[in-house]
Amino acid sequence: RTYAAVPPLWPLPEYPPKVHSNRALATQHAVMEYQDYASARYGSKWLLLVGRSIEIARSAALWCGMLLVALLLPTARNDTLVRLLVLVSLGALTALFLAVFFFQHYMAPLLAVWIALGYRGLWTIRRQGAIFAALLLGTLLWSSVLAIRKLRQEAKVVAEARMGREFPFNRHLLQKQLKDFPGGHVVLVRYAPGHSSRYEWVYNLANIDDAPVIWAHDRGIDNARILDRYPGRTFWLIEPDAPLPTPILLRAGSVSRDAYISR
Length: 263
Known about the structure:
By secondary structure, the protein is α/β, with parallel strands linked by helices. It has helices at about 25-40, 45-60, 60-70, 75, 80-100, 110-125, 130-165, 170-180, 225-230, 255-260, and strands spanning about 185-190, 215, 235-240, 250. Strands 2-1-3-4 form a four-stranded mixed beta sheet. The longest helix is centred in the middle third of the chain and has 34 residues, at about 130-165. It is built from ten helices and four strands. Helix 3 runs antiparallel to helix 7 (about 130-165) and helix 5 (about 80-100) packs antiparallel against helix 6 (about 110-125).
């Protein structure tokens, strides 16, 4: 409500323009999110349908093969339970196609339905004979290969992020370190001009004032406002895009500066 520049569903009309006083927020909401919205609302619906179908199929690779096998069988098509589960799936998939953005966890509500369809497919195929048993084996192997490939891709991304300086591992490490220090903290985050808005360091607990560590964007001379708001907290500056991001002490709070340096 405060920052979003576009509605969550592309058939909905555009929001009135918003002014984002922070460059990182403006890039994330008014530029990147609007591009996705404009592409979905005003672009080719055929391309949207194909692209979203591919994304869904990749996310559901573990179950897609079993689903197809179950739906191809005449006994499956005449199964009342299969029909009901398919209708539920179509309803949920329709919502996914109307969304501006798509992430794999958006498919979580479908998991229980597709597990049931997969089980029903196994039960149906078991009654068919040798040909369908071979088809079942091939489907399981295909799904397993896709699942293993996906896990290896994710493991590689995690490993590269841990070795490098990308979000969220360095942020999590700094948050953990600051929690070990006594007193409250505020971390001012200063991005380089080419920083990707998809790697956002600034977000907080719902009750910001009681959070042990508060994250805020570096606002230059306007930082005086947050310094005055939290007089008892220790302030740090971090530059996530530096070769070796290191927090710089700006102002010590209830604990002396020497205590922090000695740690």
